[in-house]
Amino acid sequence: MIKLIFFDFDGVIVESLDIKTKAFAELFESEGPDAVKKVTEYHLNNSGVSRYDKIRFIYKNMLGRPLGDDEFRALCEKFSKLVKNAVIAAPAVKGAMGFLEKYSSFYKCFLVSATPEKEIKDIIDKRGMARFFLEVYGSPAKKTDLVKKVLLSARIDPDEALYVGDALSDYEAARENGVNFVARMIDNELIFKDTDCPKIADMRALKKVIENYDHRFIA
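Structure (tokenized):
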């Protein structure tokens, strides 16, 4: 039976993906429209990767110039200012709040996000959602390492855990730890087109997916 659930945040709990996309566009608008297009495409194709890694990649591989520590910190701070309040106010994914309200006391629930940990914890607090999760994790820690850490500390077999995500990094974190995975579909069909996992339009379908997993143990 499923006993523990890992949740990504952006695009799984909250409809905040467009907020992050617009922020990356604004962050690099001074580089010109072609650069903005490439940056946003890279961002969309690598959802679930921390902003730290994305910004460093963009400078090294797309802009082709060094990124000093002070400039890096300034970019990260600007990004945070662009997105934080908007994410706090963003609508929840359909079914997310209902599922957490009803089942967070039944399953061990953990939030695993690419958002900086201090920021995501503050967002969760301000949205009144901290009561749903045993712990909230964010970057710079890698999702794969966080899943492994939680499984060991909770003494949960990987097959008794489920990861709900919308990005390739979520899928890889689940797969590398032997955890069951559910993909929330939101303009990410190409990412998961060859992936053998349940796919849901929103969180209203999550309980049914869990029931299907649980039937395997009974059969």
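The first strand starts at residue 4 and ends at 7. The chain has a mean pLDDT of 93.
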